Amino acid sequence: AQSVTQPDIHITVSEGASLELRCNYSYGATPYLFWYVQSPGQGLQLLLKYFSGDTLVQGIKGFEAEFKRSQSSFNLRKPSVHWSDAAEYFCAVGALTGGGNKLTFGTGTQLKVEL
Amino acid sequence: ETGVTQSPTHLIKTRGQQVTLRCSSQSGHNTVSWYQQALGQGPQFIFQYYREEENGRGNFPPRFSGLQFPNYSSELNVNALELDDSALYLCASTLDLDSGNEQYFGPGTRLTVT
Questions:
Q1: Which of A90, A101, A107 lies at the smallest CB-CB distance from B48?
Q2: pLDDT digits 0-9 by tens, B24-47
Q3: Beta carbons within 8 Å of B91's beta carbon, 6+ residues apart
């Protein structure tokens, strides 16, 4: 069964600083990997996804993520954080298995941005 | 093109009662998944419906059940509510079963069980 670990529960960065959110996954085959963002009281919005090919993936709002198979990681990065980026970020792995096309999420990282 | 919508937005129920949550999928999407997000946790997969048939289920008891209608909208039913059922329930629709396809999430229904 697949699993996702997000080791940082909370992260605080200053506006304009760079950001890296960590994600490690466990899956027996090549995974489909996603990063979602959730603002308070809202649903989930997809930031970016990795299926195959180039291991550096570009997403919306200036985010990017790098897939590293050897480290089973899919870390999310942004060169310069804006105050509006404060939200909760979820990494997820997708799998089409006998149990359906489901996403398995990590527990999330809460990002706080200091002005 | 409308996105995924869910109703109601908030709901308060008493332990032992039954609840029905509704979801309208994005236009053209035939697959709907339901997730439960407890406070401080990531969403957990409940089940998925594809063309009106259940196509997979997570680790949830049978008192969690669902339906998908010919227009691909969906319902989540929970019987014999327990306090631990208090959570945000998210519905997501996707174009089909290909796991590479993005799941589009609705805003969720916040269920409180007292």
A1: A101
A2: 998 888 899 999 999 989 999 999
A3: B4, B6, B21, B23, B25, B32, B33, B34, B35, B74, B76, B105, B106, B108
